[in-house]
Design goal:
11-stranded mixed beta sheet; 4-stranded antiparallel beta sheet; 21% helix
Length: 512
Amino acid sequence: MIMKKQVTLATLPFLALAAAAQNQQPNVLLIVADDLGMGDVSAYGSETISTPNIDRIGQMGVLFTNAYATSATSTPSRYALFTGVSPYKNPRAKILPGDAPLIIEPNQPTMPKMFQALGYATAGIGKWHLGMGLGNPDWNQPIDPSPNSIGFDYTCVVAATNDRVPTVYVQNGNVVGLDPDDPIEVSYEHNFPGEPTGKDNPELLRMLPNHGHNQSIVNGIPRIGYMRGGQKAKWVDEDMADYFLGLCKDFLDNVPEGKPFFLYYGLHEPHVPRLPNERFAGKSGLGPRGDVILEADWCVGEILSYLEKKGVLDNTIVIFTSDNGAVVQDGYKDMGTELLGNHQPSNGMRGGKYSLFEGGAHIPMMAYWKGHTAEGKVSDAMISQMDIFASLAAITGGKVAPGVESRDFHRTLLGKSKAHRRELILEASGRLCYRSGHYALIPPYKGKMVQDHTGIELGNFPEYALFDLRKDPAQTTDISAKHKLRVWIYKRRFLKIVGEHYNGNTKAEKLQ
């Protein structure tokens, strides 16, 4: 709650902003964590880690226990979030290298464009991973199309992920702090002469890779891809959380009085490499992964407190979620598995990031808007992140263009209705599965069941597998043999929805 303060000249600008906020459309703060599982948030019952600031959103508003990303990986998940379109319909919506082209077309309807049309100030800050430019961009020149091209007035982002080059911030299409005399070169095919790599120069590393992640070295950390130049522009991993938080505050300070805002705040944690600021290092007892979760929780608390200080939190819709499920071991030897102890990042669900099992796309999600959300509501309504677009449009009076699949569940988002998705198509690294009610149908796919470098079960079955999530939330028992009619019904429905996008069987089987 906002504490009463003595009015001084210093507080008058904040009071003016607060007064203006009462007469405008609601602001929107959308916070998306990276690789955070339900079990990583104490509001979902975890006793091994404490996330009081994230929990606060659910305590003040609605905590969803049955929310889903559209995908078990970042790029397709974020594509659907911004466009309201299923990622499996875009073949480019897959895990991207750092030099990939922008996969959202500049003329495509998007959530930030919808807010722009309503007169909102819009910003995208933090994790991006949706490509930029037309592919293999020249990082020493303005990049177009940039994230600004899809509806953001201001952007400052990590082009791909923390573990991929280029390891620089891109602000409004320009690399931050670039020295023209030290141009950036990037390649995902070959190294540059004389540049050390994690593979050839392990003596230069302060964190060792366990899978891939053995190419260009930045800050003593081996990355994916090769990079040369741009020394002054390279980020410092331990300062990234503070950097993006500061930019969010700067954006809020510069929103014109009386103008509502839409702020996408893409947390870069707990994605690898996990390098918390020294204030958080060693604090969780769970190793670097736990430490960066504490740092991410602190960031959430800071942005909420800043909104409160400015007097605009009460008129701000706050949504917190994650782009996909959890992963512990994902490319570096950071003691994540060894120090895990009793912590369960996937909250007892099977699988995790990359998986068709529930741990892949079943994610934490909370929503708060003072006076509009039911306080302390726990909702088991099945809802998709893809529906945030249409739901916010319904609240703010925005328009959703034809072809956008996002559906309006704004009353569910506010905790005032039990309306929900009756079915969902979920994606994981190009594979698809079907969710209806409390049943999960996983179609057959070739390949290993367990991914070697993560230890995560991927959900590759030789035949259709069916799970009753109400009785068996951990998906330990395939009940397809006992429920052949239900399998047949769900299979027909699944194939009707996805059509030729399903590539697990032969074409003849698809059309039966």
